[in-house]
Amino acid sequence: MPGVVALLAAPRPPHLRGPVTGDAVLAADLRAAAGDPDGYRGLAVALIGPGGVRTAGVGDRGDGRPVTAATPFEIGSIGKALTGMLLADLAAAPGPTVAPGDRVGVDGPAGDVTLAELASHRSGLRSVPVVSAGQALRLYLAAVRGADPYAGQDRGWLLRTAGTERPGGGRGTVHYSNFGAALLGQELAGRAGVTYPELLHDLLLGPLGMVHTTLHPDGVALPAGHATGSTAAGRHVSPWRGEGWAPAGVGMWSTAADLARLVTAVHAGTAPGAAALEPRFDAGPGERVGYGWFTTRFDNATLTWHNGGTGGFRSYLAVDRATGRGVVVLGNTDRDVDAIGRRLLGVTPAGSQRPPHPPMAVVLAVGLSFLGAAGLFMTVGLAARGRTDRVRLASSAVWSVVMLVLAFRAGDWLTVPGAVWALGVAATAVALCLAVPRWRGLPLTAGRRWWRWTGAAVSAAAALVAVLLVT
């Protein structure tokens, strides 16, 4: 019976289903381009062509309400493309006060890096600087708990950290750097004497009429009607908010309809800073990079694009500058949407795009589901031979339940069927049933009492910490 109940409550990944909004034909094409629907909850799309813009939504926002082209999503690193356009716009202004070859205004070795190097990921700066053991622990715990790894890291933090950073040996070649893009935007805003949100609005969003592309750092309410993010396995994830990282896309939200305005304008050449799209530097086989924008050559098309990813969202924006066709795809899980966008443009063939998963994801999901039951079975075996005590049996029973909680919360249930967890529950239930009749025949403690009670206290504290880390 416990196994049957657990099967009903077993973890399940999101599944793209439910309501359709907007263009029904485009929505059907979107479903086909997505292929395997597991791991997606809601998708919004805009398809731009010579005939205009078509939009559609499939699935829900995370609260049961339908996704539309007006639903705000976190767009992540698409913000880097916007920051690159700010550099291009300021550099092209009459009597420019900013030039791509200017050095960054920070003390230390990073001050030798140019704005163009930051915009094209050729600065040699680390993607995310880890400056202390405390920050490393914080990043790890954020990943485990689905929390915001950038919370509280404002512009001051970013500039202080920049003063301690040193460009690495890869300077001059393309190595993607979130930190470099964030430093670029904050440097541009500082030179203009405004905040980065003000600079972005005044130079780019305002002129394009992109009123639904907004920044929501720490303490600023999220946009009304926004989607809620999760992992592809279904776990809720907090939005990213650190204000210092805003130019890299942290805290940036937009809609498919708003980003379609951007695609239309960059193709028409009317967008401020459209020169940022020009490919300037080699970024790998068949790929070049401009100021924040990548250009990739495929067999039947060349796309200029950027994507984005936060803890619980994925985004993709691309334009074929030769034909004027473009696409925007936004999703509210961490399953990639890049291939969906390319398929809608006819660049890659349709088909399943279930992402590869590392073997460790399978090991963790399966191992955590059964490890607690296995340990309890071993303790019950010792109890049957009179070689343990009640304290150890109780500790083993607690850990058998804790392991199930950890498996439910941290397991990758897009890769592993939820039935595996249900089987773990059933095995644990059997072990608990076998433990109950052994209880009365055991002493409270065996051996040195202080040692046993100390071990039990440490075990209980560890169990509590483990549960708190994943909830």
From TrEMBL:
Phylogenetic classification of the source organism: Bacteria, Bacillati, Actinomycetota, Actinomycetes, Micromonosporales
Keywords assigned: Hydrolase, Membrane, Transmembrane, Transmembrane helix
Organism superkingdom: Bacteria
TM region positions: 360-384, 391-408, 420-439, 451-470
EC numbers, comma separated: 3.-.-.-
GO molecular function: hydrolase activity
Entry protein name: Serine hydrolase domain-containing protein
Main EC class the enzyme belongs to: hydrolase
Stated family: Belongs to the beta-lactamase family.
Pfam families linked to this entry: Beta-lactamase
Beta-lactamase-related domain residues: 39-338
